[in-house]
Amino acid sequence: MRTDTIRAAAIQIAPDLSGRAGTVERVLNAIAEAAGKGAQFLVFPETFVPYYPYFSFVLPPVQQGAPHLELMKEAVTIPSPEMAAVAEAARKHGAVVVLGVNERDHGSLYNTQLVFDADGTLALKRRKITPTYHERMVWGQGDGAGLKVADTAVGRVGALACWEHYNPLARYALMTQHEEIHAGHYPGSLVGDIFRDQIEVTMRHHALEAGCFVVNSTGWLSEAQIAQIHPNPSLQKAMRSGCMTCIISPEGRHLAPPLTEGEGMVIADLDMRLIAKRKRMMDAVGHYARPELLSLLHDARPALTRHEVLPEPEETAEHA
């Protein structure tokens, strides 16, 4: 049964750069730790399993072949034993878990967000619709079928990754489905302080505009991991700061101090009554909308590369 108060945890931890097994172990440990603190809704960073492709930000394309192939080897398929373990952890602890993964679908990789409900079922699998800049060398594009809000044990949950939040129509697609809790993901340890500041502005604005809670998680890299990704000190600067793990209310306020350095968790209680308080004044898809002037066309069909046309029954009979 849903309650008026949901305890959320935004998790900022480092991946295991050696591969998915170690990172999944960190995910499972973090789920247990957060659940032990009463968390019912948990958010992990962007493509946390096995790790975000930081190499694509600091290596020229001609040097990306080996690390790209390694990422393909360590990426997860869905379903898989590793994702079954995450689903079981969500069920065991009765928590809704939002996890970013590199998903391998045959010869392609995708930036995928998974929402596991509190009973362990996969409530949503979606792919980032437009990889950003350097990421386009790594991931394929998602489609409108993934722009969905999942009805979960803690409420209506929507999710977007990183600069998808700069696509106002993608955000509006979730808003029109009345999301109550929004999960944001960013890589963290990237670009520098300006990225941290931009993330904060973006998360607070979406909370205000959507009239929902935002639980945002960014990743973290240790100094040893940064040196492992690239030995050049000048390029290592591009893999520091840029972290803004936070929980924002529908009124645009931080519900706990954000985490901008190191590993840890931001934990806060979400008073779901604040959604009605905000939307009474400004409901962007209700009384504040002007659909006769402005509306969204959302193509929610899966983007297929093969369309099969089967023969009519009478045609089959004629050739029998």
Largest sheet: 6 strands, mixed
Element string (H = helix, E = strand): EHEHHHEEEEEHEHEHHEEHH
Low-confidence stretches: none
- Helical region count? 10
Our Rg estimate from Cα atoms comes to 20 Å
Class by SSE composition: alpha/beta
How many strands?
A: 11
Family: Belongs to the carbon-nitrogen hydrolase superfamily. Nitrilase family.
Domain CN hydrolase: 6-272
Protein name: Nit6803 family nitriliase
Pfam family, one: CN_hydrolase
List descriptors.
about 325 residues, alpha/beta, 6-stranded mixed β-sheet, globular, Nitrilase, nitrilase activity, Nitrilases_CHs, C-N_Hydrolase_sf
Can you describe this structure in just a few lines?
The protein is built from ten helices and eleven strands. It is an alpha/beta fold and 320 residues long.
Q: How would you describe this structure to a colleague?
A:
Residues 6-272 form the CN hydrolase domain. Belongs to the carbon-nitrogen hydrolase superfamily. Nitrilase family. This protein is of the alpha/beta class and 320 residues long. The protein has one domain: Carbon-nitrogen hydrolase (Nitrilase/N-carbamoyl-D-aminoacid amidohydrolase, 4-Layer Sandwich), CATH 3.60.110. It is built from ten helices and eleven strands. It has a six-stranded mixed β-sheet with strand order 5-4-3-2-1-11. A five-stranded mixed β-sheet has the order 6-7-8-9-10, with helices on one face. Helix 1 packs parallel to helix 4 (81-93).
Topology:
Layout: E1 5-12, H1 20-36, E2 41-43, H2 55-58, H3 65-74, H4 81-93, E3 96-105, E4 108-116, E5 122-127, E6 150-152, E7 155-161, H5 168-175, E8 181-186, H6 193-210, E9 213-218, H7 223-229, H8 233-236, E10 246-248, E11 264-271, H9 273-281, H10 313-318
Parallel strand pairs: 1-2, 2-3, 7-8, 8-9
Antiparallel strand pairs: 1-11, 3-4, 4-5, 6-7, 9-10
